[in-house]
Amino acid sequence: MKLILFGAPGVGKGTQSKLLAQEFSIPQISTGDIFRRAIENKTELGKQAKDFLDKGILVPDLVVLGMVKERLKEEDTKKGFILDGFPRTIPQAEGLEKMLMEIGSRLDKVVEIRVPTEELNKRLVNRRLCRTCGEEYNLIYKPIPENGICVKCSGKEFYHRSDDSEEVVFKRNSEYEKNTFPLIEFYKNNKLLLSVDGVKPIEEVNKDILNLLKG
User: N or C terminus: fewer CB in 10 A for the chain?
Assistant: First the structure.
């Protein structure tokens, strides 16, 4: 199963990617993971990416696609993979399509998780994380336990990410709509797009995705 998972910040992409990775025994891959691997392994493309990142410059599409190609040639992707949050633009999508053809592969499906902007803002602005293990809580949907102790690691300190402020959340969602919405049409035209309602509980969203993929 070779998938792309799309969705604005806060829709639950990471959570659903991990569940699908377990279900199909395939790796969840994000550009962040790819960058870290390539830089740690000191590949030529990893060195190029590090130069851009160290200067605070966006890594060019050509370098990103080269790194994705390197990653998708690794043994653990033979049964499939889940690309989480990549591609982000039409040029990246077109480059990915060409690159997959070159390595004799192709996408099976693209899953879009949809959540209204108002709901996303509510999720992110009220999100709190355990300082010790990163377990996620929400002041509305999943409050921090009354005893102030994390259920996962017994940590006692929780924090609000700086990029979860109302202003930054609005900016991130605007950026997503501008860059990623055109991709939805791109994959819809290629008859690869599946859409699910991300407002439902995690387990139901996962069930809906699996039903669509196996249907």
Answer: C
List the catalytic residue out of 88, 109, 114, 131: 88
Q: Which residues of 121-139 are buried (b: 16+ CB within 10 A; e: fewer)?
A: bbbbbbbbbbeeeebebee
Catalytic-residue membership of 106: no
The residue annotated as part of the active site, out of 18, 37, 172, 207, is 172
Q: Is the peptide bond before 145 cis (omega within 30 degrees of 0)?
A: no
Does residue 114 carry a catalytic annotation? no
Q: How many CA atoms lie within 13 A of 25 on its CB side?
A: 3
88 is catalytic: yes
127 is catalytic: yes
pLDDT in tens, the chain (215 residues): 999 998 888 888 888 998 999 999 999 998 878 888 888 888 888 898 888 888 877 788 888 898 888 889 899 999 999 998 789 889 999 999 999 998 888 999 999 999 988 888 888 899 999 999 989 899 988 999 999 999 999 999 999 988 888 888 888 788 778 877 889 999 999 999 999 999 999 999 999 999 999 87
Q: Give me the CATH number covering residue 183.
A: 3.40.50.300
Q: pTM of the entire structure?
A: 0.81
Residue 106 falls inside a structural domain? yes
Instruction: Take residue 3 and report the two structure tokens written for it.
Output: 């998938």
